[in-house]
Each structure stands twice: as structure tokens, then as C-alpha cells.
Amino acid sequence: MSSERRLVAVIGAGVIGLQTSISLRQAGFEVVLLAKHFPGEQSIEYTSPWAGAHWRSHAGEDDLEQQQWDTETYKHMLSIIEKETNEPGESVLSGLALRHSRYFSTSASAPWWSNLVRDYQTTPSSSLAPGTQHGTTYTSIMINAPMYLSYLLQTAQSLGVQTIRAALPSNSDLSESLHIARKIISEHHNGGISAFVNATGICARTFVPDPAINPVRGHTVTVIGEAKQITTIEAPSSADPSSNSSESTPIMYILPRPHCNTTILGGTKDVDNWDPSPSPATTAEILRRAKEWAPELLNSDGEFSVLSEQIGLRPARKGGVRVEIEKVEEFVVCHSYGHAGAGYQNSVGSAEKVVRLLDEELSRYT
């Protein structure tokens, strides 16, 4: 079908909503992006800016679709980095950069992406982190999350995506909210809306409503200096893996954030925890674990120079990501939410699926 003059309204300006707007526009759709929060703002319900963030697939061995999403995103991000390297002087940097990465996990087998990433090597057993069974080094993609979101927004706008700031009700049913969204958009755009994309992230819990949405709370600490490499250890901090100590952290990561001389340290994965306040005890444990793995960041007192502590709520969904078409009264809606902590690495592949679904669905009406 010809997608020209087909207007799609994307609701939500996190990494999923922004990338989906870009992918739809590149496919020929007209796009309006409506959101309560945009890049540059901070809110606990606007989850994308709080991410670490780097490319490391969370897809299971049998989750072929999410593996494909992550593969498409990895290759796309590589192309952006290569363009910025070969064509310097762009006014807007993506915030993406290649970084050496080391990864340790309790799984005894190599990850599915071992043949995808650059410079993959298995870590000798003598060099494994405590409590882990497998380790690897490879070249990964580090993402300065606030910079990348701003880059996506400016890319979308340069392609002709119209942005509208508005808050939709979260205490009504979806059809009522879509009627309100249509009225708001009609004040800015003359065309009729062919479809909506629901990229509301964690707010989908009340917006849809979808009770399967649940936060996976992440506690991180920002410190001065850029670590020399990415380090991720997927293993509990306690010597006893069964420990339920409130100070134990289930994962440790050190993420050197490009272009700003800072590093993000983490972290936690607290399911169904909405608390926006950092815990001093957890901060202390994050700093303690990271010392061994990033001594280059320690000051003359042997401590990290802490800039901030923050909480992010990964927008997870019990039952997995939801990317599918739903008819809501007269509206065509393509849901795209529930990506949890994989939003950045899912973003391009997930957006391409939205394009395919809407292309197929809307072709039925021509």
C-alpha cells in the first residue's frame, strides 16, 4: 500500500516511541508524536532517561523475535557510530560509542549473541568473577541515554514528525483517552488519524489499562570519570547466592557514559517496587562492589566521587513485550510496550515490527 498521507499518532516519547516515530516516517507515514514528557525532562514515570544504558541482549535462547530486534538495533547503532566517525562535524551527536566490555554470568554457556558482536572472546575460568560460570569480552555499544533521546527527537523532527505536548487521562478506559487524543491532535493537524501507536511504557498500566505492567526498579549511582571499559556481573553480591539481605545487589555494572566524563554504577532489579527514593545502604553496596572493577575511578581517598544517586523504573510486563494490533471501537491501535530493561537494544527491531503490522492492517482499508 502507499503509506503517504496516512497519519499515525504515536503516544509516548521514550526510546520506543521516538524510534517508532522515526521508523514510521521513514516508511512514508505522516506521524504526530504526542507525549506528556519529552527528552530533557525528568520524571519517575518517564523511564528512558534513567537507563544505564548499553547494548547487551536480554533475549532468551529461544526468543528468536527479540533476538532479531536486538540484532537489527545493534547493526543500526553501529551504522550511526560509523557515520559519525567518518563524517565528523554533525551538530547533534547521537551519544553512542564503541567500548570494550567484559561480561560475567551464572550461565555456563555462551550467549546467543557471541557470533554477532565484534571481538568476542571467552574469559578463562581462572579470571571469572566470583559466583559466575562464564565470562566473555567483546566490543559493545555504550549509550549516553539523555543524549541519544535528544538525538532521536531531533532526528524525528527533521524528518517531519510533528510533536505535541499533552497529558492524556489515566483514569479512564482506552477508547475515551483515544477520543481525547484525537481531539487534541485535530487542533494541530488537519488530517484524520489512521492509527495510534501506544508506546506509553510503564504508564500503560493505567492508560490501557494493563495490570500485567510492573516496574523493575533500578538503583544507580553516577560518579566522576569515564571507566576504561564496561563491566557487567550477573551474580548476587553476597557470597551466599540465596541471601536475601536488603543490601545485596543481584547485578553489578559499570557503564562509562560517553561525552560527559561520568560513569553509571549499579544496580538492582526490584520487581514491583515503585519507590522513587535511593537507599543509602544500597548505594554503599553498589560502590563497594564496583571498587574492585574500576579502580581507575577512585580519588586520592580511595573512594568514588559521587555526583548523584537515582532510581529508574524499568517498564516490564508479566507475559513479555506487547507489540500487536488491537481494535478499540473505531480506532486501530498498535501497542508497543513492556520492553523492561531492553528498550534501547529492542528499539529499532521493535519499531520495524510496528511498521509492518500497521502496513498490513491499514492495507485492508484501501
Automatic annotation (TrEMBL):
<dbReference type="GO" id="GO:0071949">
    <property type="term" value="F:FAD binding"/>
</dbReference>
<dbReference type="InterPro" id="IPR023209">
    <property type="entry name" value="DAO"/>
</dbReference>
<dbReference type="Pfam" id="PF01266">
    <property type="entry name" value="DAO"/>
</dbReference>
<dbReference type="InterPro" id="IPR006076">
    <property type="entry name" value="FAD-dep_OxRdtase"/>
</dbReference>
<feature type="domain" description="FAD dependent oxidoreductase">
    <location>
        <begin position="8"/>
        <end position="356"/>
    </location>
</feature>
<feature type="binding site">
    <location>
        <position position="341"/>
    </location>
    <ligand>
        <name>D-dopa</name>
    </ligand>
</feature>
<protein>
    <submittedName>
        <fullName>Nucleotide-binding domain-containing protein</fullName>
    </submittedName>
</protein>
<dbReference type="GO" id="GO:0005737">
    <property type="term" value="C:cytoplasm"/>
</dbReference>
<comment type="similarity">
    <text>Belongs to the DAMOX/DASOX family.</text>
</comment>
<dbReference type="GO" id="GO:0019478">
    <property type="term" value="P:D-amino acid catabolic process"/>
</dbReference>
<feature type="binding site">
    <location>
        <position position="314"/>
    </location>
    <ligand>
        <name>D-dopa</name>
    </ligand>
</feature>
<feature type="binding site">
    <location>
        <position position="200"/>
    </location>
    <ligand>
        <name>FAD</name>
    </ligand>
</feature>
<keyword id="KW-0285">Flavoprotein</keyword>
<feature type="binding site">
    <location>
        <begin position="47"/>
        <end position="48"/>
    </location>
    <ligand>
        <name>FAD</name>
    </ligand>
</feature>
<feature type="binding site">
    <location>
        <position position="253"/>
    </location>
    <ligand>
        <name>D-dopa</name>
    </ligand>
</feature>
<dbReference type="GO" id="GO:0003884">
    <property type="term" value="F:D-amino-acid oxidase activity"/>
</dbReference>
<keyword id="KW-0560">Oxidoreductase</keyword>
<keyword id="KW-0274">FAD</keyword>
